[in-house]
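Lecture 7 notes: from sequence to structure.
We start with the chain below.
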Amino acid sequence: MMVKDITKDEAVLSQPCREATAEDAAIAQDLLDTLEATEDAACLAANQIGCPVALAVYLDDADEPHVLYNPKLKKALRPHKVVETCFSRDDEAKVTRFEWIAITYDELADGQLQPRKAERTGWEAQIIQHAIDHCKGKLV
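Predicted structure tokens for the same chain:
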């Protein structure tokens, strides 16, 4: 188990991340370990542990962890304003999120990345959008 420190360095966090590959599986595991060890965490992106890779993890409504390699927002409906917090920021921020999203991402299966599609609503949609923003180097 490798729990990493969460960075608040805006120079690191504001850089768009490189595409993730199957070789980044160790980073994904570090993210899962760090997410599990961080109280009240719902999602983390790799750049939050100092790795500029388009990789994120989140907990669904049943507290099950999911790993998203190269997540991208493809469609979004029903915008609304929310107040979010972030482990890499001290202050909360008002942001626009979407109630319903369609995403594409890659999933590691048998040592290879497989393309996937998903639709999410509510809280899961919100935290996935937050994680995708991190991958793009965008801070709340």
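Points to note: The two ends are 29 Å apart (CA to CA). Strands lie at 43-45, 55-59, 65-84, 93-109, 112-121.
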